Amino acid sequence: MNIAQADLRPEHVKKRFPRSVAPLVNGKALLAAAKKHNAMIMATNIRCRLPVEGIVRASIGTGAPVMYEIAKSELGYTDFTPASFVEFIVRENERLGNTEVPFAIHADHLTVKKMEDVPSVRALIAEEMEAGFTSFAIDASHMENEKNLAATLELARPVIEAGLSLEVELGEIGAKSGSAEGFTQPEEAEWFIGELVKKGIHPDLLAINNGSIHGTYFGTSHEGIQLDLTRDIWNVIQPWGVDIAQHGITGTSLEKITSFIHYGIRKGNVGTFWQNISFGLAMNSNGNAITTEDKGYVKRPYRGVPDELWNEMWAWAVETGNTGGNIKNANMAFAAKLHAVPAYCKERISAHAYEEAVRLFEATHSIGLADAVWQAMEAMTK
Questions:
Q1: Which end of the chain is more exposed for a tag (fewer CB within 10 A), N or C?
Q2: pTM for this structure?
Q3: CATH number, domain with residue 94
């Protein structure tokens, strides 16, 4: 099936892109298909445009659906707006001829750090919905649980009313790196989801603090996702059919990712990894950037952007205090130059992204899942 045969896109997507044949669909359909077939959806955080062609080609070639996502924070250090992000993802899928492999566009980490943030996040949700986002993640996990609940209840309402997929969060991701302090506990998760459902908010996914971090593991720190804890949390929220969203997958072995589906993980976020590919950084076998003692990076001359551009970016990072994980801020500062890299660099970034995306699709058991997404969409419209 394809869009030309049956336009099952959400109404707000049809309104924004009335003539598009790119299958931008409700995130609920991707999650339903993954749940039915015991698979996981790969969610890719896109900070610059360079790796997207390879990811789209891999999705088309394998029949694996994707969630393309951008966090509220990433809108602050990339040159994307909500509207331009959706426009770019849709147009890339059109340009590459995708009419048959459904994808969703996800608003990652709509972060609320204090109750005073609620109005601005509410406005951002409205802007993103108008832009064509089809999945949303409310993240009020920085606050104590009662305030998290209150903010989530208020902000999730328009998502539920639109019938789009919803992720909520309990336990700040990476709050205490290398420590069990701050880990989400099963009894908290049971209370949180139960209270949301009582008040008419039924999420599809729960993001938790289970030992992952966002970004690169520096020095002696290492990946520490606690799968037994994850399974315990998943078990207590099963009465409501809610699954787990795993954040911070960069630096995790493919072998471990392959096992995620056995612990209730239905969506996995991969972000910094694609940035590493774009910049041409050396990585270990788990996709974590190889770093120096002073949190510098090793650039591979045959990977990513030209060495001259990387050297300019790194000199800027040192001068402006954007070394270590803050190299992400180069995505905005050097956006024009990243867009204009030579064709040979674009080709090698695309090829690298293609190969790595295929490996991740294999690990997430999502190859060939496109047909099941179409079936889920048809069921949703009946």
A1: C
A2: 0.94
A3: 3.20.20.70
